[in-house]
Amino acid sequence: MPGRKIRLTSGSSLIIIGTSLTNSASKTIKADFLIVALFISVSGSSTAKRHHHHHSAKSPKLTRTSAVRHHDTDHLSPIFSNKPKFSGENHLFDDHLYGGDPSKTPYDIIEHDVAILSQRKNLPPPDSFDALQIGSERLRTIIAALHCNIGMCREDLLRNLDYVANILEAVHQDETRRLMEEDDGALSEIEPDSVPNEVRDWLAMTFTRSMSTIKRRPSDKPKFKSVAQAIRAGIMVDRILRRNILAPPYDIHRQTINEWTFDVFSVNEFTSGQCLRYVGFELMQRYNLPNKLHISITALQNFLEQMESGYSKYRNPYHNLIHAADVLQTTYQIIYNSGLMNWLSDHELFAMFIAAIVHDFEHTGTSNNFHIQSRSDVALIYNDRAVLENHHVSAAFRLMRIDDYNILSEFSADEYKNFRHLVIEMVLATDMSSHFAQLKTMKSLLSMPENIEKSKALALVLHSADISHPGKPWSIHYSWTESLMEEYFKQGEKEKELGLPCSPLCDRDNTLVAESQIGFIQYIVEPSFVVMGDMLEKILKSLSVPDSELPSPSIPAKSVSSSPSPPPSPRSLNDSSTHQDEQLENGRERKPSSMTTPISRLTVVRRPWTEYLKENRERWIREAEEEKRRKELKVIEEEP
Length: 640
Description:
The N and C termini lie far apart (88 Å). Strands 1-2-5 form a three-stranded antiparallel sheet, with no helix packed on it. It has a two-stranded antiparallel ribbon with strand order 3-4. Strands 6-7 form a two-stranded antiparallel ribbon. Helix 1 (106-116) packs across helix 2 (129-147). Among the domains are: 106-178, no CATH class; 258-543, 3'5'-cyclic nucleotide phosphodiesterase, catalytic domain (Catalytic domain of cyclic nucleotide phosphodiesterase 4b2b, Orthogonal Bundle). A hairpin with a 5-residue loop joins strand 3 (20-22) and strand 4 (28-30). By secondary structure, the chain is mainly alpha-helical. The chain has helices at residues 106-116, 129-147, 154-183, 185-188, 197-207, 209-212, 224-233, 264-270, 275-286, 289-292, 297-311, 321-338, 346-358, 368-374, 377-381, 387-400, 413-428, 435-446, 454-466, 474-497, 513-543, 570-580, 609-638; strands at residues 4-9, 12-17, 20-22, 28-30, 34-38, 584-585, 588-589. AMP binds at residues 319-323, 360, 466, 517. Its EC number is 3.1.4.-. It holds the Pfam family PDEase_I_N. InterPro entries: HD/PDEase_dom, PDE1_N, PDEase, PDEase_catalytic_dom, PDEase_catalytic_dom_sf, PDEase_CS.
């Protein structure tokens, strides 16, 4: 590290040289900076004087253009100093501090600063801007004194450390407050009157942790900034009409798992209610992950069966195995369609599939707010923080500890650690309370030249897939919103049984479905997919290479056909494994050995969800108008 000069007097300089020292025990001590005081006289040389508690030693003479490090360091600890030339509190390197006395050493300066630690009058408040500078200087003084074994009064030390701690707390609180205010930015411009009171209450009470414990008078309206934070937390605001309108079923013969319009309801019907295990096993097999990662086929079969069992535990209309299969397929379709598959290793791809599979495992069919208000066991376990999301991932990993379901038995310690980290990050990111923070972080990353961290990118993909059904064809979207409405109605009934206030939009007799869907699409789903699409394109640009350098593609086009077969036995899998690598796509040989092959120059991601979001939002607007007319007619009919 090059020397930094800090002027001491008119005829001397202080040079800071980055280094490491070796003490008498031959142990290397790494220091931020070794301060070497070189008092250079007019004649061009001088000696550096050491602290009076140490044995004096002569320093070699130096010229203005050269600098040497102290090698006689048996009794000298390195001094940490980052202080500027003119310190705001101590004027540490002021030319007149010692009346221009060139005999003062860095030790004298530190002792002077230590003495100042006892001065507590006129200190700026911890939450003031000036406190940042003073706190930094005092903390640096303490560090330097400790490294030089310079004595300090215990009371002074504790008081100063407490002062610095208060400064850090104030900075943290201020930054948290600022981030919360910025989170509201996407929604704060909305006119309060444009949001019906019931929708406002539902958003605030259901999807905001801070609102969940606050009791309001019936006449009080939550401010829309609170609703903004609610929507941030608010996953799946997907509401539903109560009419039984079923669109014509998709032709399963035409269905492929690679398509955005994949109809998981048809697949579930065809597989007799076992779509999760079929979709899951299909995706694992098409990339030969069991063989590559040495995953027991029997354990994988058992694991997928237990996943279906856990999703069926509470007989949820929405958060069930069909939803898990839908999110899994949507996650896969996004990374397949965009080419993000080429960015992932086999272990990372497997982690993404498993995260999608387990992301709502053993969901109770009730919201986090319900658990908090009812003081459920799971809320107490996870301290009201991402209650369900923590349970999903924890329960899944507890299951994998059992030998019969241990799909990770052949993973090394590092592979298990990295796999677990990715799965936890992705599943916890499905908690809507982190929605706006997640988008803000990704927007910030998109504006920087650095590459995007994989865990953050994959978390956003899973989060987007989890709220993706408004971006699907109307028939699919409407079926999901209808199911979710029923699940919320059931929660409302449980709340009445427990004597709890009925959450907004959980009352069968009082709902505003279309209005909530419009806001959900406009302020949650659309922005999420815009950011995700931009993220995918940035990643692809970092991977692009000339077409002439591209290897054969590694992504097959195998489909879930009209006659899906159950997962093969271990024997049948082994018998067929030698032929899997010979599968062809468009006449080209599949290369299953790598998930990280470069992609072509085309880095514009196709976004099939855009048109569906627009169409569905327009349809909900028409539904809202019709809903309003029906409500007005009902009022007229009830008038005497």
